[in-house]
Fold this sequence. Notes:
By secondary structure, this protein is an alpha/beta fold.
Amino acid sequence: MCGIVGFAANENTAAEVFKGLLKLEYRGYDSAGIAVINEGRIKCEKVAGRVSELKDAAEGLFGKVSIGHTRWATHGAATRSNAHPHISYDGRFALVHNGIIENSVELKAELTGLGIEFKSETDSEVIVQLIAKNYFGDPIKALDAAVKRLSGSFAIALICTDFPLSVFAAKKGSPLIAGRGRNRNMLASDVSALSPFAKSICRLSDGELLEIRKDTLNFFRDGKPVEKEFEEIKMKEYKADKGEFEHFMIKEIFDQPEVAKSIIEKRIRNGEAVFSELEPDILTDIKQVSIVACGSAYNAGMAGKYILKELLRLPVTVSLASEYRYAAPLPLEGTITVFISQSGETADTLAAAERVRALRGRSISIVNVRDSALTKLTDYTLYTEAGPEVAVATTKGYTAQVMTLCLLGVWAKQSEKSVLFEAVEAIKSIPEIMLRLLGTKDKAEELAKKVKEEDSVYFIGRNIDYAVALEASLKLKEISYIHSEAFAAGELKHGSIALIEEGTKVFALNCYGPLTDKTVSAIREVKARGACVTAAFCENDGNTAAVCDEGIPLPIVHPIVGAVCEIIPFQLLAYFTAKHRGADIDKPRNLAKSVTVE
Ligand code: F6R
């Protein structure tokens, strides 16, 4: 994934690059580094650790141009030598790279054959060595020649000792944004790193190169200058502030009632759902809805599937973007494809959206980050208005996605007055119910103290409870590192029940009214094989209460808003379990907030 930053100014730029890297740490935090040009030479500092560990070293770096990198390791371990920037064999160039070079093995063999010694195991180092090999006094030509030999994806920033006032860059497949500031210009993987310094921004397109100096930004394609338009920066700088909370994740869990309120304020007017971004008939004649996303956004899509099916009475499919992008193309006539992504930068989701666009399919994106890449690839964008999400594990991003899907379904059906009133009232009750559920945090912590000893746990549910089980399980495993899986309760006996033995921990989610009896049967089955079952159920459901070992009674809600509320106790459970296991909650191992590589 990785994040890159580059600055050119008339004064020291290393501090700005350092600040930019802190903002990009959500993209990866295995190692970090900064390089500057000082007195005609490259000076570089790197750490195998978090960006914050680079602070002291960064304070000792001075240069009018700087580049920096925060890494999510793909090729080679998270060591200092694999950290970027990488320096060319002749000491003339330093380079940072986000992306993956798919033909790096062949290129490395070729360059090694020419006597070049590699210092890292990364795919990225081949780029800087190729550039140095192709350099005959013009860095743009050298960069152009080098990137034409690369397969894969890249956003590159480069400095060259012969041009101590310039940062050079190239892009294909990975995001890269140029920013224009006062007496300084810059580039970064995303707007958040630029927003404190830039007045306007411009996204590079694939195949473009860039040279930035303190007062100029020149774009090129195939060696020729190209004109680009800049847009005023819309995203306000935000302070990553945990307030009274110990971690961003718990803060963001507690942000949810406010997020829900702001979604309601934006989307419900005079008792009707409002989507002014959409053409009124966009969902009128469709034959099916196809939802495409990754991770928790996929889980939100699964919840959306049950909600939209119930409301629209149409086929709704949910696909993992990583599968969808390579699947045999199906005709998209009559289909509306809905892409869901908190970041709007997830590589697989972007590739899937590009595919739908190439096939001229109609599409909507449900996105949190303003102006992110996905918003440029779909016909319509619905912002989730969850506000910046810092913790790697999404919480408010997920509930905002599910709420948006609920509202979209209601909007499509609001000519049917019976659907409208009940559903709108249900959605309006979400903030209140969320507050009630957050009030059970101490109970979640007590439960977490027991769960923290488990090696493996299972979640079961049917219909929308199954969708929530998927998300509850993902939340727990990704931050506590306890093995966890979710099953559709009816599928258990087709294989997975073999995993149940004396003492196995099972969470049964059982709030979806029409199928509670069925899940009660599944609970009985796992209990008969020794499982210890904690069940979430509606507070009036005596059957589930009687059959489980421990209960999480939940308020009775309309099925279309069930998922948004039912996940909250499980977000709390995941958080407290991770906390009592001493895990790094906001930055779980091996993960990054934005998965910008395939
Ligand atoms: C899990 C989580 C991830 C993301 C996934 C997609 O807590 O956050 O599974 O949901 O990487 O990310 P976006 O929504 O940015 O496309």
